[in-house]
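This section describes the prediction task in plain terms. A model, or a person checking by hand, is given the sequence of a single protein chain and must write out its three-dimensional structure as a string of tokens. No templates, partner chains or ligands are provided. The sample shown here is typical of the held-out split.
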Amino acid sequence: MIGDERAEPEGWMATGTPDQPTVTSDWLAIDPPAIEGVRIKEIRSVATSNGYLTEIFREEWALDQSPVGQVFQRTMYPGAVTGWHAHAVTLDRLFCCAGSVRISLFDGRKASPSFGTVWHKIIGALRPAIVTIPPGVWHGVVALGPETALLLNLVDKAYAYDAPDHWRLPPDTEQIPYKLV
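The expected answer:
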């Protein structure tokens, strides 16, 4: 039986809620993004004779139809928090290639069917995935674990030095129903 249909074990002192499935028997994630326009692709690394090869982005994955305008990396010390930020026109594609991070999203687009939804995903070197984040979706990142995390971003539009497409809120803002810290 699955989910809440399972009977509670007899003789337990405390009761709880049974876990819902999170992966298939092939260890593919079951948690589709709950925010309109957000896409995720879990990526399998390929073992080679001298390490691993991990594809980060391929056009035929059809995660989005936007070009790659710039690629940049961000290092995050253990426990580092980016705070909330959003873009008016830029699409982010986040990939953590060292360490691990929790990406938290909040759909702030009033016309979106998922307006007001919060969603989280933990990604990293041990569980590679790329997450595409459309304009108008607030996002924050927290570095997890004891090592420095390395986050790549493959944006569709390069950073505009004279007019940055960035809006920011603190990690504990009251405007988003989730605190990053």
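For orientation: The mean pLDDT is 89.
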